[in-house]
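User: I'm putting together a teaching handout on how multi-component assemblies are represented. Below are the sequence lines for each component of a complex, exactly as they appear in our records. Could you produce the 3D structure of the whole assembly as structure tokens, so the students can see both representations side by side? Please keep the chain order the same as the input.
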Amino acid sequence: MNSFGRIFKISIYGESHGNQVGVLIDGCPAGLQISEDDFTEDILRRKSGAKGTTPRIEEDKPILVSGFFNGFTTGAPILISFQNKNTKSEDYKDLFSFPRPGHADFTGKMKYGGFNDFRGGGHFSGRLTLGLVAAGVIAKKLIYPVSIQAKLVEAGGESDINKAIDKAIKNEDSIGGIVQCLAENVSIGMGEPFFDSFESLISHAVFSIPAIKGIEFGSGFESAKMFGSEHNDQLIDVTGKTVTNFAGGINGGITNGNPLNFRVAVKPTSSISKSQKTINLDSGKQEELKIQGRHDVCIALRVPVVLEAVTAIVLADLMMLEQKIPRVISQS
Amino acid sequence: MNSFGRIFKISIYGESHGNQVGVLIDGCPAGLQISEDDFTEDILRRKSGAKGTTPRIEEDKPILVSGFFNGFTTGAPILISFQNKNTKSEDYKDLFSFPRPGHADFTGKMKYGGFNDFRGGGHFSGRLTLGLVAAGVIAKKLIYPVSIQAKLVEAGGESDINKAIDKAIKNEDSIGGIVQCLAENVSIGMGEPFFDSFESLISHAVFSIPAIKGIEFGSGFESAKMFGSEHNDQLIDVTGKTVTNFAGGINGGITNGNPLNFRVAVKPTSSISKSQKTINLDSGKQEELKIQGRHDVCIALRVPVVLEAVTAIVLADLMMLEQKIPRVISQS
Amino acid sequence: MNSFGRIFKISIYGESHGNQVGVLIDGCPAGLQISEDDFTEDILRRKSGAKGTTPRIEEDKPILVSGFFNGFTTGAPILISFQNKNTKSEDYKDLFSFPRPGHADFTGKMKYGGFNDFRGGGHFSGRLTLGLVAAGVIAKKLIYPVSIQAKLVEAGGESDINKAIDKAIKNEDSIGGIVQCLAENVSIGMGEPFFDSFESLISHAVFSIPAIKGIEFGSGFESAKMFGSEHNDQLIDVTGKTVTNFAGGINGGITNGNPLNFRVAVKPTSSISKSQKTINLDSGKQEELKIQGRHDVCIALRVPVVLEAVTAIVLADLMMLEQKIPRVISQS
Amino acid sequence: MNSFGRIFKISIYGESHGNQVGVLIDGCPAGLQISEDDFTEDILRRKSGAKGTTPRIEEDKPILVSGFFNGFTTGAPILISFQNKNTKSEDYKDLFSFPRPGHADFTGKMKYGGFNDFRGGGHFSGRLTLGLVAAGVIAKKLIYPVSIQAKLVEAGGESDINKAIDKAIKNEDSIGGIVQCLAENVSIGMGEPFFDSFESLISHAVFSIPAIKGIEFGSGFESAKMFGSEHNDQLIDVTGKTVTNFAGGINGGITNGNPLNFRVAVKPTSSISKSQKTINLDSGKQEELKIQGRHDVCIALRVPVVLEAVTAIVLADLMMLEQKIPRVISQS
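Assistant: Of course. Below is the structure of the complete assembly, with chains in the same order as your input.
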């Protein structure tokens, strides 16, 4: 389903080259003060234009369609939409028969019997993450004083990210990266022993972000090489503070009050300028494909703010379930 | 919530030292032939007793309580229960005040206000995975001809797993490991672009298994170091077959018909024989803790069959949604 | 939650005097041919303007925002919106402190701490049913050859509905009515024994329609006065056809293949022109209230098409679950 | 699905002539004090044995399988089971081919392809309501100080219920009835404007109870005959108290703080002693059916406690959502 959450619930809609993209939020408490300006910073962080990102630039102005009144949320469903203006659909006209390797062109066509809007990836496009970021802005306000910070810590296997991007551009190629996410002031006790473990919910939301291929919490894959005596985080006091944080802030699927810490692997953008081979789905023959369109060399550059958004969304939902956020916000 | 799935839906219940553990399955098609013998192999694979596993041995005989009639599923909810017989609760009596480092003792106590059954980890115990395995047996039958195989490929950082376990036993310590899971004959088109991507659903289910701290699909974390031109799997034919499988069988969150391939990181068992420091929650003082109980040196040894089970459960749910499994099975 | 359905899932949004109202549909199969003209008839049936309905007239032109491409559904989320143009918010400015008796003004204010958009009833307005009707148009196409027909069979206790409305208008008052709904060609086997009985799902959806205060299936309340020997519908043949249909097409919560038959009670519109007493929520004093706004004398006149819509939505969801509607529609 | 609720979630399982029936409760707060004695009164009220009820008498002793520790709920899933002992399955052996008119025999067989356990109605049996009553006992404790009272106010069209039952017994027939349910101390603000209106949730749960064919809130079907000026409940004070309660305690789908009031229609038991005609599903011929088994002459006699139970379950779920019940109960 194109929705997520039990109490603070979001659904996204739209296509890369359609009229709009946006997000519907159901279950947001009434009384949260929100203005259009609140969205500016995070939308800007997601925006393209910098080196390594696509030359398609959109205004990305949020339209607060419903669920707001006199500057506050009303408790009714919130719809936020964004117009698509800078589309060049003609770049995509060949891709219906020539699926781009590594992209959803082939799976989308098969799943939807060829009825999918394939222009610019349609509903699979990274442009849809704009709705996630918008919902994340609201979620971040709700979960205060929890603070979330994600950053790109490695790209193309290098910690000098600028250098890695230059190399990829020169090669007409693309690169991936590693994004780390930290959250402070997370309260104890969120998550469930089975099925809705905290890791389950975060990873469920995170793998909605296009191009993510792995996630690890705390010491993650490294923990598989450690002894229990090294990995076990020693408790310091009755509030649950620990000396180390190999658990990443989670024990038994439940937050333990220490900082939340996880990392995700972002694969290289599948659309590259370099020529590739693919199958002509009409003829069944292999042919050369030179992708036109406008693409990100390193989509991982734009992932941190989206990762923060989905983390905030998961936390907002859980904090409402755990009654850490009231049903009506009274601001003083 | 302690349940998972939209159409083929499972819920687990029970405690390590309570009377029973078990699973409730709702939405299983009628007409699936099932006998108690069908459970034998997978339950045996999960069982302890071998080197590196706990000396607590239970009979683990499945009781088919409801949802079966004349050897077939009826379409009504299925309850399968297992008796707990070999419990030594006195080993745990101190742990209420002395949380084991790395374990859910502390988070469980905080979340449930001290009302949780802490004996043997209570509802957090790995014993609960018995219900997952039982549900997995049914799911595996439903998803035929999809076949799933998981195996431990590394323990304590070594590919010689036997050696790694000997070392951990000698040190009165514990180790983790890496488990790989492959699924063949997965049909094209399962998963959704956003929120219910195939990776989202698998990871949601996988992080229910105690001790899992990371998951990666296809080339996973390695993909973050690759160029797009390397990582993009070249299509060979119109059925979607690819030369390489760095995507792990998934593009844009949707299965692409190639084998599903993912790996999980299992942390070292948090209960170790070696003495550790912890906090006395009553006095607030640091004290030495020598864990009595009976524990696995390498819980990763018992993870493969559980990983297969949750993968089968996800596939059964999605295949029912995609109408690849009928609502009534007609066996010939 | 402001959403309904498990597979064919709808969410509505908007406010009476906001910018838009609309509906988000998730899980609609790809390949369904839809044009704006398909909506005309049902939207017209819901429209006001006739005797007994409000003088507020809106254009009600559906905007197919997302999920459509080249005249077909794509399988991606469908957003359909309607502009609000003919609003007179000044009529409502007093109602924040003077709740209209029988209306949601009081409960809305209490639930949302006074942050709700109270203009014209805000999100509680009957205008929101426009989204239901739009989703119903799509659902009706999906469930073909099932056909649904609802009609107003009684208003203000009279079968001469015209006469009843004249009387209410003359009295500056409002009246309710009884709406009957029939569905033909419903297949056998939809619904579940417990919790998701067919009656449970229909009534859940039906009580979303403002002003509905009762529902009965088949002989309904009359059945409480009958003997079993009278009420039991005699089976005629192996397809399940029965001589009578006191069951309304449902046994044990499951459709039995006979026509579905149920009736709903619609209360009189709570907004009336006549002067009423209410409480001034600021002063706590009783005062006279003369409602300005524009209202329906008999909202029951506009209920039949909405009742058909929600019935179609329930059937579409269940028929997808029961695999009676494919995931991709192939039209010939 | 055989489950209900979003936060306080119940699932039932079992068959009339299987080994057990029972209920799984997920999401119950930790710290609620519960003993087996707490179940006695409501189980006794549901029990058969009195005039007009079935001669099949079961011990109905609740077994608290999981989720309890030291006399309190733990926060983990609660399983409560009941043994079936007094079964006479041979009475039912013919019914596989001879569906009882008015019963789920035919729909159950069609839905589940003949794999359903048809003995005594299997999973469709009224015996399954025992699990509802058990969950209701817990829910009633949680929602305190809300109190719920349901009673049979009419049977077979008579207010002298005893007389009506005597007549039905003499005729070898069965009768239905009307059950009224009142709840006091319900807080303001529960329910949602659309889809999860309070009436939607109550009716969803209520139509899970076998034999219910109608529900009406407040003045219900009578409201369709009233003028708005009569029906609108006049507000008395700022707490929302009204002079009349035609709304049944609900406006706009939201509780208004006045007593909740609704009535349900129970059809006559479909199993009667009198001979009836039915179809032989094997031969397709009409034949006489003389039902053996043991049945209730007036199942409505046993409905009140079940109706209270499902009402309490809905309220518990909503009160948790609205944060009126904490996640951990601290009893003093």
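A couple of points students might notice: The mean pLDDT of chain C is 94. Chain C touches chain B at residues 6-7, 76, 193, 321-323, 326-327 (CB under 8 Å).
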